[in-house]
Every structure is written in structure tokens, then in C-alpha cells.
């Protein structure tokens, strides 16, 4: 998967461009792709693409996946929006270990680990 390779090769901008091309071309994306690109977005400290990816995940019904949810929580925290992390977390019907761990990590990033 080219998107993931870009992330691993320290080329997050290239990975984000490939992701955008995939969306524009109407390629059906899955949970793995979304989780991968959210990691890339976290490396870029780019809130807007993160918000767009969150909206895309909602649109294509990928928010039922625990890993997608925890990755979105993590992405918002790493991009400086702990409030958005909290909102996503609070809206989860099933708060599992992954989502709770993402929130704990987010609070720690923002100096709220107590």
C-alpha cells in the first residue's frame, strides 16, 4: 500500500497526497487506510486534513471500528485539539481499552495526566 509506505519512509506529505488521490478517484478505502493516514496527519501536525479525514470516515461509515475511533482521538490530541478528542470519545457508545488509552495519552500530551 503506497499510502503506508510513504508514512514509513518519513514522507508524510507524499502519503497524504496519495490518500487524496485515492479519495478523488473514488477508490473504496477501508479501516486500515484511514488509520494509516491519521498517523501521517499526526506527523504533519495538520488539523484541517485530520478534520477532513474524520468527516470522510463518518461519511463512509468507518466510525464503527474501534481502531479508527481511537486513531481519530489520538490525531486530534496530537494536533492540539484535546477538546475534539473529548467530543469524539464522549460520543462513543462502546468505550473500549483502545479509545480509553488514546484519551489517557491525549490528556498526558496536554499536561492533564493527573
From TrEMBL:
- Name the InterPro entries on file: PPR_At4g14850-like_plant, PPR_rpt, TPR-like_helical_dom_sf
Which keywords does this Swiss-Prot/TrEMBL entry list?
Answer: Repeat
The protein's matches in Gene3D superfamilies, at most eight in alphabetical order, are given as: Tetratricopeptide repeat domain (1.25.40.10)
Classification via PANTHER family:
DYW DOMAIN-CONTAINING PROTEIN, PENTATRICOPEPTIDE REPEAT-CONTAINING PROTEIN
- Indicate what this protein is called per its UniProt record: Pentatricopeptide repeat-containing protein
Question: From which lineage does this chain's organism come?
Answer: Eukaryota, Viridiplantae, Streptophyta, Embryophyta, Tracheophyta
